[in-house]
Amino acid sequence: MKHWLIFSVLLATGVGALSWSEWNKVAAPVGPASLLNFVADVQREASRVPFRLTRLSDAEEISIGDQLAQHYVAGLISSQANPEETRRIDAYVEKIGGRVASGAKRMLPYKFHYIPNPYFGNAFALPGGHVFIGQGLLALMTSEDQLAAVLGHEIEHIDLYHCGERVQVEARTRQIPLGSLIALPVTIFQAGYSKNQELEADREGTWLAVEAGYSPFGAVHLFEKLEQMRREYVERAGNPSQELSQVAIEILVGYFRSHPLPAERIQQVQAMIIKHKWQNRSAERPLELTLSMPI
Predict the structure, then answer these.
(1) Which of 71, 78, 116, 167 is most buried per CB count within 10 Å?
(2) Reduced to 3 states, what is the DSSP secondary structure of residue 268?
(3) Within 13 Å of residue 76, how many CA atoms lie on the same side as its CB?
């Protein structure tokens, strides 16, 4: 009976995933890798079912996130960071994040943190409302709209319970009581989510950014920049005289390990632009900071 129940859940999740893919018309290359990714996503989605029925309360999630954030922050900051510059950029990220988070469905105490580390080319969220963005990723941006898109994406990982469910899965897998979750490594939140969850966070995060007055083209242009870097890295890998810097490689490896490839993400946002008639929202605001990156 138990096996039939598991099979039924997997089958229902698979049908749902196929229906979602057909409805959203998101193109993906067909092949063995795609099939394996699909099966992995189905398994991950099936594992989420029990936690959707027994979710943490907002108070529990906030308490866990606060403890984790306090535990993680010091270890993420580079020893070469400039304290004055860090405070200035942190305040700017907090301002943009707060503006975007005002449209979130869950009224949580969202907090935004800048990580002054050029090798940290990613962003991640913790349950309860903490969002982190690294210097390596911020240095790639050329507009405030791009920052708003990334922060919106991370807000939605919280808003859609992705982070909360990740905590429950890890606590059960590692047999850690909820009161002792400070033992969880930060890498489990940096590792990304299923492909469907990442694309869902893109859609909802883009919507949040647009509702806050930002251009949806910010997301498109950032993804295009990441795709350009990915191609340069792949094309230059066999030519030592034209290798990317170690910083650029760290950014690429870290970001693409935890997110879908940019081409698919670009297509999804472009489809949203057409669907919601956002073509005239092309003007982007300048980024109110300058970060140099040896790429």
Answers:
(1) 167
(2) helix
(3) 25
